[in-house]
Amino acid sequence: MSWFSFMGALEIGLIFSLVALGVLLSFRLLRFPDLTVDGSFPLGAAVAATLISAGVNPFLATALAVVAAAVAGLTTALLHVKLRIMDLLASILVMIALYSINLRIMGRPNVPLITEPTVFTLLQPAWLSDYIARPLVLLVVVLVCRLLLDWFFATQTGLALRATGANPRMARAQGVSTGRAILGGMALSNALVGLAGALFAQAQGGADISMGLGTIVIGLAAVIIGESMLPSRRLPVITLAVILGALVYRLFIALALNSDFIGLQAQDLNLVTAVLVTVALVLPMLKRRLRAKGD
Amino acid sequence: MLRVDDLYITFNAGTPIETRALRGLSLDIPSGQFVTVIGSNGAGKSTLLNAISGDLPIDSGRIEIDGVDVTPLASWQRARQVARVFQDPLAGTCEDLTIEENLALASMRGQRRGLGRAVRADQRSDFRERLARLGLGLEARLTDRIGLLSGGQRQAVSLLMASLQPSRILLLDEHTAALDPRTAQFVLDLTARIVAENQLTALMVTHSMRQALDVGGRTLMLHQGEVILDVAGAARAELDVPDLLGMFEKVRGEQLVDDVLLLG
Amino acid sequence: MLNRRPATPPSTSARVAHRAPGASRRRALMLSAIMAGVLLGGAAVHAAPPPKSVAVTAIVEHPSLDMVRDGVRDALKAAGYEAGKNLTWQYQSAQGNTATAAQIARKFAGDAPDVIVAIATPSAQAVVAAVKTVPVVYSAVTDPVAAQLVPGMQASGTNVTGVSDALPVEQQIELIRKVVPDARRVGMVYNPGEANSVAVVKQMQELLPKFGMSLVEAAAPRTVDVGSAARSLIGKVDVIYTSTDNNVISAYESLVKVGNDARIPLIASDTESVQRGAVAAAGINYRDVGLQTGRLVVRILQGEKPGAIPSETGGKPQLFLNAGAAQRQGVTLSDSLLKSAAKVIP
Question: What is the rounded CA–CA span in Å between residue B12 and residue B20?
């Protein structure tokens, strides 16, 4: 694998680690199966790309993209909390609606950012090439997000949120408004995903209406791989684990892209990725079994 | 302090399995009283507790705590005044959270939660102290997940949680039913101690007539959604289980045939 | 994991057995001269240019895009570059995933081939955004300027050039009028999520009124929606026109069914669809687009700078007609039209 390939995998992996953090919050902590992300990821991209093309400052555009995605998450939560629509269904409804909304926002299916200023081009020092600068910027963003999340989960409100997912009845008995907790948690979760979408559009050359497909799969794969590699109950370790999970997943894809030397072809990419991920999931379990036998 | 006026709750109204759980139940409990509630299955005991805590919507009637009509309030809004210990030890605590996190949650019951740290250092030492008084060695296990504790230990912690913040009323829903006899006795003694120490008003549902008479100062007997017996003070002190049975038969004109009730 | 370069072909050396001196020497000399001539002549055809590498990517596996890729490979072969011999050929499909497209672009940047070929807009954008020095040739992109691949269709001055598959829309409208002379309402089935199709729809909306015609749109966001979109046009249109939309091309049979059942003439933009049941198409053949693209690649391999090569529009549209379909869909094809066709399917 070339250095470029590796840095490329890191770059994309860091972007999707934000998705993984969002999915961790919704799926694991709130126990809310949230498919909105397939719509809020491209929503973040659409808002950022459209605003940047219209001349808005990329940082402001990114911030607005985050807000838009938070609203999407809030909508899903409202459908569930106020209108009593089943959680999974509510998220699917919003995801479907977002396809049309994103097309409306962009005005066309594809908004390129190749010649536009982005947060990356603005932050890149002249002496550093872009394929190193982008992962560096993303690393800082991801670490800041993780630190903020770890701090938040240790606050009273964060604890109330975790209780809402762990045992909603008990949480209510302790005076937690579980409805409000879900609203806030879903907004935060999708805000993270929207941030990822906005950054992805700026790193990869534009927003395309089809870019949301499969976001939830990547997010869940990252969470599961991460939890498998670094099992823990402590939240700071868990947030680190899902970030690593996202990186490992994209590295596996990079490996699969480079596997033509063993006779595999382009169409085998998905199969190779699946095999690598399965091995990653099974290996820790095998190690534990071997260790148990040896005792 | 707690007033229940003419409460009606019907499940599955209009269907073949319609159940009229509470039929015009009324109740008045002064502050500081420890009331035990007894009755056969389907008498409406748990339904009454769930109605008071806000977990069940009512068809008609009124619930007042300290003169404030809480009937329209959601359960999380009543939590400031109502503390609960559930029958199922799993239901009353968050399995995935640590002991100190559970206690921290309970310590904020009824308060506005902000962005301050959930478990502060000064809180920790307070928790340790209180846990030590339980005599279960839990004060050394603050960062253990509560899921690792036994049922009895969890109920003890639940009781502690219920007493961390002042509440107007403590609801205990057969909270020793899922425990073995020795642990049940331990938790019962703990209950009596905590209620006395904090001068709580308490409503305890039990399936055991023995328990109902031994604990607290007033006993209510429910049958088919209504209060059929209400004894307190001196009259209650003289009573024994067969007496309760006799009173029941006199009021209802029928024999009590619930095994659990008789043997408990 | 380095890409292994194939060994250079063995140098040609004439091995001639020397026989008896004198007449045999003269014979030997003539023989060697003939052999040398043959070999040199042959070398002119088979002599391997120095080994090169070409990396190709498409956003998804799809008949049109695959034809482009094969066309590129054939053009390279015709110019003497053959995979496995003197050409390292790499093809990666992004499986429809933009994140994978981004990783492929970065991988190619690292592999640093002599030329990168990017087929279809999302892949082309990913490559152009990630690759600043390696020559990039895009293909099958309808509007490369709107996609910000190149500043204009003239020589870009950057590392990017390519072949667009845009069809002049006036020609398409002319064809519609020739096949269905009294058509007033033109229906279009397309994927609103495909940039190429949206571009064509916009142009049709602008130009049709000039001919006294109007456009009726029917959206098909997924291939399974093509049939129902076509059915929604029954009774509302006189003819159904489709562009090189990926969804439509994938599900063209469902369109044909509607056209035959409701007797609505179908006019397509690619010649393959005429084989499948459209009445007519003045379309580009995607293999030809591939060949054209391949020829640009060859020029770059032979030393030209991509920034000095202006972008091209894919080939001359060829007119294909389907007489059987015309009959089924209630259309009479004029003799002049039939004569001007490159191919008439019975």
Answer: 9
What residues make up the domain containing C6?
A: 2-46
Residue in chain B closest to A233 (alpha carbons) equals: B96
Is the model's pLDDT at C58 over the cut of 80? yes
- Is residue B206 left, alpha or beta, with left meaning phi > 0 and alpha meaning psi from -120 to 50? beta
Tens digit of each residue's pLDDT (9 = 90 or more) over C95-145: 888 899 999 999 999 899 999 999 999 999 999 999 999 999 999 998 899
Q: How crowded is residue C99: how many other Cβ atoms within 10 Å of its Cβ?
A: 23
Task: Concatenate the DSSP letters of all residues of C262-318 into one string.
Answer: HT--EEEEEHHHHHHT-SEEEEE-HHHHHHHHHHHHHHHHTT--GGGSPPEE----E
Residues in C whose CB is inside 8 Å of some CB of A read: 1, 4, 61, 90-93, 95-107, 109-111, 121-122, 125-126, 128-130, 132, 146-149, 151, 192-195, 198-199, 221
Q: What is the pTM of this model?
A: 0.84
Give Cβ neighbours of residue C257 (< 8 Å, ≥ 6 apart): C227
Residue B93 scores a pLDDT above 50: yes
Burial of A193 (0-12, 13-18, 19+ CB in 10 A): buried
Mean pLDDT of A34-39: 96
**Residue A217 covered by a domain:** no
A84 — contact with chain B (CB < 8 Å)? no
Do residue C141 and residue C56 come from a single domain? yes
In a domain, A238, yes or no: no
Pairing type for strands B2-11 and C185-190 reads unpaired
Residues C337, C223 share a domain: yes
On whether both C244 and C213 belong to a single domain, the answer is yes
In which element (H, E) is residue B226 found? strand B226-232
Asked if A232 has any chain B CB less than 8 Å from its own CB, the reply is no
Asked if the model's pLDDT at residue B261 lies above 90, the reply is no
pLDDT digits (tens, 9 = 90+) for C170-188: 889 999 999 999 899 999 9
The residue segments making up the domain with residue A17 are 3-210
Q: Do C203 and C220 share a domain, yes or no?
A: yes
Dihedral (C-alpha) B123, B125, B130, B132: value to the nearest 10 degrees?
Answer: 150
Q: Return d(Cα A182, Cα C240) in angstroms, integer.
A: 49
Shared domain check, C66 and C30: no
Instruction: Give which of B113, B117, B146 to mutate to test A binding, by max A Cβ within 10 Å.
Output: B113
In 3D space, the residue among C52, C48, C49, C50 whose CA is nearest the CA of residue C134 turns out to be C52
Q: How many domains does chain A have?
A: 1
Nearest Cβ partner for C92 among A113, A257, A270? A257
Chain C residues lying within 8 Å of A130, measured CB to CB: 132
Asked if A60 is an interface residue toward chain B (Cβ–Cβ < 8 A), one would say no
Instruction: Map residue C59 onto helix, strand or coil.
Output: coil
Measured CA to CA, the distance from residue C118 to residue C162 in angstroms comes to 9
Nearest CA in chain A to B170: A173
Which has the closest alpha carbon to B66: B37, B29, B36? Answer: B29
Interface pTM, i.e. ipTM: 0.85
Residues in chain C within 8 Å Cβ distance of A5 = 103, 106-107, 110
- Residues of A whose CB is below 8 A from B154: none
* Interchain contact A107–C (C-beta under 8 A): no
pLDDT at A18 over 80: yes
Q: Give the domain CATH number at C81.
A: 3.40.50.2300
Contact assignment for B94 to A176 by CB distance below 8 Å: no
Same domain for C70 and C107: yes
Domain annotation covers residue A222: no
Residues C89 and C232 in one domain: no
The tally of domains found in chain C comes to: 3
Residue A225 is assigned to a structural domain of this protein: no
- Cβ contact A167–B115 (<8 Å): no
Residues C58 and C155 in one domain: yes
Task: List the structure tokens of C44.
Answer: 């002119």
